Prior knowledge:
The protein is α+β, with helices and mostly antiparallel strands.
Amino acid sequence: MPELPEVGTVRRGLVPVLEGCMIARAETRRPDLRRPLPERFAERLAGARVNRLGRRSKYLLADLDTGETLVVHLGMSGRVLVSGAALGGFHHAHAAPGQHDHVLIETAAGVRITYNDPRRFGLMDLWPTDRIEAHPLLAGLGPEPLGNAFGPGPLAAGLAGRRMPVKAALLDQRVVAGLGNIYAAEALHRAGIAPWRPAGRIAAPRVAALAAAIRTVLAEAIDAGGSSLRDYRRTDGELGYFQHAFRVYDRAGQPCPAPGCGGSIRRTVQAGRSTFHCPRCQR
DNA sequence: ATGTGTTCCTGTCCGC
DNA sequence: TGCGGACAGGAACACA
């Protein structure tokens, strides 16, 4: 579910209530998500101050003053909701946890952060902050698409020699970190590249256009607060609205929005994932 | 080494 | 209305 813009939006919502704040209490309502939660997870969080809340690819990273970093991935259906902020000294009661509320974190200021994940494809881990780049899930990640380490050159290098469809290559987090099914399809449409084209067989100018399209579509989606289809919500429970700006994703049979194109959006399946594209203007 | 298929889990939607 | 099957923002893993 959440790709880079959604995780970035969650981070934006959490920064004001978490960064610089103390975790007063944590509660795990089951022992595992996709994999077991860390040993003594709640105890290791309680009393810790959050020095900084960052994001790497689709991971949230909360640096604690205990020397550990809390690593959170939302999987397909993970949500983070903020509630119960103390306003003017008035603390209102927290709602009873719901069925898929798996982890609760409460700050010293009376804010509750609820991690909800029906499918439990998400994960949480604790890892030494000074070695966070060596975390097994982070070590192999490619460049951040919005950072200086990404551009036409790095993208071309990541795609070079690969015969798999470029759409599948964009989902490989080693090539570029943070793209998922929506934004890979949207970036390819903006760049006019067909999703089944072999990744290593795209001319340099078109790879450059793709790198630019990746950056712009992600930046626009972040501005829109991400895309809400089914599960995703912002931390205040509101919807993102970038789904209204989709040009191909989930638009099978609808007209291609490219000016003067007149094509019709098609849905196909690649590597087990739905792909949407316009056969007319994507080559 | 690369690339594809399967799997984890729950919820929703659609056709019969 | 019930039931089965397809499908869903991810990605690790087993395999050809």
